[in-house]
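Example 4.3 (complexes with small molecules)
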Amino acid sequence: MNRKGILVVVSGFSGAGKGTLMKKLVQEYDNYALSISATTRTPRPGEENGREYFFVTREEFEKRIADDALVEYACYCDNYYGTPRDYVEQHLEQGHDVILEIEIQGALKIKGKYPDALLLFVMPPSAAELHRRLSGRGTETKEVIEQRLHRAVQEAQGIEKYDYIVINDDLDTCVEELHGIITAAHNTPLRNEEFIEKMRMELEGEE
Ligand code: ADP
Ligand code: 5GP
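Answer. The structure with adenosine-5'-diphosphate bound is encoded below.
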């Protein structure tokens, strides 16, 4: 049976641990293809162009929008972020589970375009721990941290639109939980319509 790739959207407040979780998930399991977004934000120390993001100018980003080269894009805390179309389409066709680590506006656009996308929301164990992680990362100014925490208050209003939440308390446990949910999602009837139809035909042929 042909196993189709699932488009997996992972969102969560800034500092919840999405990047850390995704890195570990793709290290441990080899069926995942992690999409690399384009962004106009400046790289953090240690980030490399083409690894964490494709860092582009606002002008280059707007050209990609005009060329319809992005499956979705959104503005988050004054910067553009968007998902390259080619990567997503190619890897889904090859049967890989494609992971988009994107914020909520983009997630909802993806759900509109790909109704069988799986939407996951990563939560920290508490708001205080989120604050600690975001400050502890040491990559944003106090002002940007405040802006991101304010954004988290708004994002928290949309959590029910997701299929599952996962709590990132212990990192390894959370990676296993994510993998378990994605694995189970492959077995829903809606994602196996061809196989079910084939079985029905065979059964009718046996009568
Ligand atoms: P996001 O991508 O959601 O903004 P990061 O992956 O950058 O978040 O994680 C934010 C900070 O929290 C990083 O310093 C990271 O090392 C730390 N972190 C991530 N997951 C955990 C965890 N389960 N326990 C403790 N610290 C964590
Ligand atoms: P950061 O600046 O912390 O790397 O990312 C800020 C936010 O942008 C995060 O919520 C992240 O998930 C989101 N993001 C990253 N890439 C994309 C993308 O391609 N599209 C959208 N809509 N959001 C993205």
